[in-house]
Amino acid sequence: MSHRCGRISPIAETSEEDLFAFVRRTFSVMQSLGPTRMTSTAKIVKPPTVPALDPSPETEAKQSEKKFGRAVMSHGAYILPAMLLRAQARLLVNSTEMIVLLQLLDFWWAEDSRAYPSMATISQRIALTTKQVQRTVNSLVKKGLITKTNRTLPGRGKTSNAYKFDGLIAKLKSFEPDFKRARNTKQAAAMPGGLMANAEVTS
Fold first, then answer.
1. pLDDT tens string 116-156
2. On the chain, which terminus has fewer CB atoms closer than 10 Å, C or N?
3. DSSP characters over 162-176
4. What phi, psi does 151 have (nearest 5°)?
5. What are residue 161's DSSP bridge partners?
6. Which pLDDT tens digit goes with each residue over 50-94?
7. How far from 87 is each of 82, 94, 172, 176, 187, CA to CA, in Å?
């Protein structure tokens, strides 16, 4: 008979069959709780429920209205890949080139179309002279991010240039595997065992 502090231990008076039955019941209860983790205080904690993200355009539009207000968003939304901003240094574009590039993209409305903004329109938007905008556009062309085609209209002569962004898109697509690998590596580093135990996640 086991004694502790002058009291009889209840375990000593419990039969082996009762102990096994208790263990089986405890195991059944834990299974019914689903995936759990045990804290250092032996409390059962369920993992937090993460709400599913709805990437639909309707949901994004509602979130934009909540952030900026319906009146502001009534003038249109500007959709671009986040990688364009995150890869600015890798694209080797400075701040002026990036803002001009963003302005040009604002006039590109469909995959099979081109952008036709005038130098005057861009210069008014970003408070640069038309010559400064022209030099910046030429720099973007030289870096292979955009192509520029001169246009003429019957009876009007030379008009605004047409711009395409095939070079920019090709570069972003070539960067994507590195960005994906970096994202997976970050996730793997936070998982049990770190990078060594989750090497397949980073590939």
1. 999 999 999 999 999 999 999 999 999 999 999 988 888 88
2. N
3. EEE-HHHHHHHHHHH
4. -125, 150
5. none
6. 455 556 667 777 888 899 899 998 898 888 999 999 999 999 999
7. 9, 12, 8, 10, 20
CA 35 and chain centroid, separation? 28
Residues sharing a CB contact under 8 Å with residue 116, sequence separation 6 or more, in sequence order: 107, 151, 160, 161, 162, 163
Task: Please answer whether residues 26 and 38 qualify as being in contact, where contact means their C-beta atoms are separated by less than 8 angstroms.
Answer: no
Which residue type does 147 have? T
Query: What CA–CA distance (Å, rounded) separates 31 from 22?
Result: 14
Our CA angle for 108, 158, 118, nearest 5°, is 35
DSSP string, 2-51: -EETTEE-GGGGS-HHHHHHHHHHHHHHHHHT-S-EE-TT--EEPPPPPP
